[in-house]
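Annotated sample (chain length 406).
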Amino acid sequence: MSCERLFRPELEGRVVVVLSNNDGCVIARSNEAKAIGIKMADAEFLVRERLKTHDAVIFSSNYALYADMSARLMNNLARYTYTLMVYSIDEAFMALGNISGIALNSYVKNFSSQVMQNTGLSITVGIGPTLSLAKLANKAAKRQGRSFLVLDSQELISEIVKDFPIEDVWGVGLAYYSKLQEYDIKTAHEFRELKPDFVRRQMTVQGWRLHQELWGIPCNRIRDVAERSKGIESSQSFNTYQTKLEKIEEAVAMHAATVALKLRQQQSMGLQLTVYLRTNKHNVKHDQHYPSLTIKMPFAANSSHELTKIALQVLRAIWQPGFNYLKTGVRITGIIPAGEVQANLFYTYGNERQQGIATLMDDINNRYGRGTLRLAAEGFDKTWKMKQDYLSKQYTTNWKDLIVTK
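Output written by the structure step:
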């Protein structure tokens, strides 16, 4: 939402929503959209008339723009902490414990304004002695219309948790919420008053850790090195049913190239590759087919060329004619560091050549935009690509969409 308004400031004060894949559901809303009753995950067709009545502005998910602005935001945040843990595309945890002799309120106010100046994005900051309390402070600040909230005393923590809804506490999902409802626990304060042993019996060790963190006892830590992914996946629903193998091959090739790029970005290689297909389980009039096949590759790889070639072979093994396929995806597991690849005695693999080609592709795409150089197997017209009728421009990642001022 902030990304769209950053480049379209005239949208300030208007009802704005962002839709999910294939423009299916609402995944982001402006405060004005919330005020007219638009809820998260509302199906677009169910709220279409209401949005039209209020002259709403609708956007398809612009992944390239959001990812680039997220990277700019995280790079700016990293300047103000010795350890930054990126939690999601728009959330991060910062460690401030080793920064001595600072007034937290003025420090937060300063770097918030600097981030706004450098990126154009406004942020909300919550500070607390544990990750759970920091997250709670962040949500409480938003509720109060503040840009930041510092929980630096037990008195302030007790005041904030007193009326804070338990369902909005970070880590309380549907299962925990249902369990707590059985005991008439409605607020974070009431949850804190439960005995630790009772919490551990009823909510396992994860619930116990949350309970301890709400008392200011750290049970989770900010990691300065991101954990290596155990699996990388790329998938997408088609904009309409696909019955021809050639079109599905194009999609699988694109997904294989995407997971290969992600492997290279984290300097990893994969040993196992999975390809799957899905029909529409909600359409009972169609025959259903959910094939999936995982193979162990004879070598660890992160080359777009190699992974695409193998993925297409796997696809041809599971594809069957006569079905209306709605989704496909490629998943890589068995991920290892790129520097720890074990050679295969029975298979000759030109790794240096493939790495050279991959590096060349990445260099060109980094300079001229993703997809400038790609494998022909990915296709050209891509009529199967997901529906994005309201896609905004890629202001920061596409030369054609750069804003030009006179």
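Annotation: The chain has three domains: 2-61, 66-214, 231-378.
Annotation: The chain has 13 helices and twelve strands.
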